[in-house]
Write a structure and sequence with these properties.
Layout lengths: L29 H36 L3 H28 L7 H20 L2 H6 L4 H16 L5 H24 L7 H6 L3
Helix pairs in contact: 1-5, 2-5
Keywords: Membrane, Transmembrane, Transmembrane helix
Protein name: DUF4175 domain-containing protein
Organism: Streptomyces mirabilis
Amino acid sequence: MKSTADGVPGEQVEPAAIPRLGTTWFDRGAGYWLRRIAHGCFQLALLLFAGLVVTAFYAGFWEAVGVPRSARTAVYAVTAVACLLSLVAGFVRTRRAPVEIPTPEQAWREHRSRQRRNAASAAGGRWTLLLLAPVLPATVAWAIGTWAAPTLARRTAAEIGAREDYERRVREQEERAEAARPLPPRNRAERRHGRR
């Protein structure tokens, strides 16, 4: 039976658009994978660039403080271990975190809210960078770990929510269509006279 939006034959239930993927999540074709890979590569490039900037800042910080070269090597080794542990911890924490499955509308609201928060936090907090200089590389490694977990997942929470929303709307439409269908006559007399 063809899915319809409001019980009108021929009008299909359309999948809802979600942030970054539009409606490509529905059939998961080439456009879906192109968007998903392009978005993941773009985010990875940004995080790696941030990692390079932070590493350069970090190295300059220890030189400016006047730490001798041999001590800096030890500090860098400790920092490398901290970065690796932060990367793994960020990945594992994000993977195991309970995920609330959003509806498409909630996904769009969260997307817009995140964009506003990012713009506000980009303008402020520059002095915090100086205070966090010793732990910045580990912080960026943690950010890469938390980024990698949902990016490498088979389906995002928004996709799962959109699929559940679509299936719910199809079920509702089928129930409305079933309720609108006339009942068959119960006996011969009703069949003959067309009564119900």
